[in-house]
Amino acid sequence: MNLRPIVSFGKIAGRMAQNFVVIIAGGKGERFWPQSRAHRPKHLLPIVGTTPLLAQTLSRVRPLAPVKNTFVITSAAQEKGVRACCPQLPPENIVVEPVGRDTAAAVALATLLVEARDPRGVFAVLPADHVIHDRKRYVADLKAAFAAAAADKVLVTLGIPPTEPSTGFGYIERGSKWKAFGRKPLYRVKRFVEKPSADVAGVYVRSGDYVWNAGMFVWSVPTVSSALAQHAPELVKALSPVRAALQGNQALPAVLKKVYPKLPKISVDYALLEKAEQVVMLPSSFDWDDVGAWPAVARHHPADKKGNVSKGRVVVEQGSNNILFSEGDHLVAAIGLENFIVVHTADATLIAPKAKAQEIKALLKQLEKAKDGARWL
Amino acid sequence: MNLRPIVSFGKIAGRMAQNFVVIIAGGKGERFWPQSRAHRPKHLLPIVGTTPLLAQTLSRVRPLAPVKNTFVITSAAQEKGVRACCPQLPPENIVVEPVGRDTAAAVALATLLVEARDPRGVFAVLPADHVIHDRKRYVADLKAAFAAAAADKVLVTLGIPPTEPSTGFGYIERGSKWKAFGRKPLYRVKRFVEKPSADVAGVYVRSGDYVWNAGMFVWSVPTVSSALAQHAPELVKALSPVRAALQGNQALPAVLKKVYPKLPKISVDYALLEKAEQVVMLPSSFDWDDVGAWPAVARHHPADKKGNVSKGRVVVEQGSNNILFSEGDHLVAAIGLENFIVVHTADATLIAPKAKAQEIKALLKQLEKAKDGARWL
Mutating which of A294, A315, A360 best tests the B interface, going by the most B Cβ atoms within 10 A? Predict the structure, then answer.
């Protein structure tokens, strides 16, 4: 992957390009069932901390862009919850995808939203549901990424230095050093790789040349628009009514409803980043956790002497290393449990060994088929 | 143990002695927590079947004695629940022990209650919380016991032929054959033995000479009165104000409240049956289960192909041989559970491997000490 000749375009006609943040809030709400549901996915829950992860993300990006320049893209099922979670945002900055069309569509829509406000705008695309405690370094890293994206025609990805040979993430192979912004070094990218096998992941992590692709990107409207036009022309074409609506101040929802079902369902990694040549990577310096499922939650809560992490009214007799959450005033009483997850909510209780946490999806499928079972989804 | 010379006294002065049943309903409600509570013990719950075990017992004894001759002895904490469960009984037939004083006191009180109605009455003392499906044989066995107790000065105990070397029951060693009533053979008793070790229980069961002592007795007022006077004179003496109150139609509760705390806390086995000489044993021919704890419940419910027994809204993904009960419309979702008990009630949920079911007592002790924990007891 070679970088094209670099031309600085951050300032044109004396006016600075504005910064924007677009938060993608579209999770399905399966992996944290029964706390999460279709209408109340992970980012609308205080899985870690006391406020929903989306609210934490909004607060964390505040130093990067003003509220009026912050968008949230979400799904129809979650709109109500997202609006309730983001009272500080202008209502028109919460944009609803009528149907899910994966991340390429969301990124292309984000590009049009920012373009309508500032055709030279620089924006970050960030997931709503990651847990990051070190806000200072987070902001510093992203500011460097914004500076790079403003100064050069590059697609900046943040790379997370891996802490384990996870098979749950895509990886980015680091190339040679490119430039530094705000003392943060950025690297050329050799290649993007999809979620690897455990063996391959081990090789990646030991090599020191790979970082996790966490789906955090920063780029300018002109750079990403031109890359999309080159690598995903059908997507750009299909979205042209949306662009026209935004430029002409037409009502967006009706147009999205018409256009969206026709969009290709494809990830931004596959549609754009794996193909584009001007991709650079900034290795993150902050702590990061995507808290992918219940077992990961324990990392962010204090445990008792026996390694039990609990919330709510819980009593444990002879048990260790469990996650025990109970909502309301309900008592969860566990005897002899080791490495279990127990989550009690008002209308459903999950009990599973941590090692079986990934089977929640199979359970929800079973529930979907069961008579009257869909009301717990 | 030798039997005294037998004198028939079933009929005196041309009038038949009446039959009575006294049901002892005094369990603590620990082993079926969280369904059972101090005020709602096992016999007030439909642990097996659709009505409380006490109601099932009342219905089962109907062919043995009329309603007016049926008593229930219970505790203060359970009075309300017992009265609600037994609307068909005359209110004065539900007698409340102000404090628990073990079974010898309850049997002595039962004797006085029956004596006040018929000094020659024959009565059965029966636990409230056993599960017995074969009512026909149950009634036939007890009728034979009533006939024996009416005809001879004997203390009849029912012996349950053991199905396994249980360490949870006392055993009765059978002696030589004594007599038969209604084609049911009764045996002399060599000795009563307390709950044995597993090894000893194995020897007992293999020998074929031992039966379980299930706490089911039949005797006449004169016979048991005289045995109590001989072997538990202090108990008889301490209860004399109760006898006077019953004979004089004084209000019973006030007298019981004064007398009961002073009574010795001792079992009827130890106080009477192990010492008395005129004990005979009738081996039961009916099915019998004391359903001592959650794992035993599975025996009485149909299981699915994977051995899961469930009640209420339950979904199981990859799991077998579990007991899963959910009250109300709450969903219990279990993944990867093997041999577990999960019991959800409105205010508490228990999760435990079947093998740890006996640790409920330790859990409840912990709860008793916990701030505000007693409200779940």
Answer: A315
- Per DSSP, the residues of A148-174 read HHHHSS-EEEEEEPPSS--SSSEEEEE
Q: Who among B330, B335, B353 is closest to A347 (CB)?
A: B330
- Domain end: B231, B263, B283, which one? B283
Q: Could you tell me the CA-to-CA distances from B370 to B28, B373, B374, B376 in Å, in that order? A: 20, 5, 7, 11
Interface pTM (ipTM) of the complex?
Answer: 0.85
SS3 state of residue A333: strand
- How close A333 comes to chain B (CA, Å)? 5
Contact A363 B331 (CB under 8 A): no
Reported for A9-13, long-range contacts at CB under 8 A and 24+ positions apart, including other chains, are: A9/A120, A9/A153, A9/A220, A9/A222, A10/A122, A10/A150, A10/A151, A12/A120
Q: Which of A259, A283, A307 is the last residue of a domain?
A: A283
Using the beta-carbon criterion (under 8 Å), do B351 and A334 form an inter-chain contact?
A: yes
Max distance between CA atoms of chain B, in angstroms, equals 70
Q: For residue A275, what is the domain's CATH number? A: 3.90.550.10
Q: The pTM is what?
A: 0.85
State pLDDT tens for residues B26-77: 888 789 999 999 899 999 999 888 999 999 999 999 999 999 999 999 999 9
Range of the domain at B343: 294-370
Looking at the 3D structure of chain B, how many domains does it have?
A: 2
Give the span between the Cα atoms of B31 and B34, in whole angstroms. 9
Compute the nearest-CA separation of B314 from chain A (Å).
Answer: 10
Residues in contact with A18: Cβ distance below 8 Å, sequence separation at least 6, in sequence order: A65, A69, A117, A118, A121, A122
Interface residues on B facing A, Cβ-Cβ cutoff 8 A:
33-34, 315, 317-318, 326, 329-337, 340, 342, 344, 347-353, 355-357, 359-360, 362-363, 366-367, 370, 373, 376
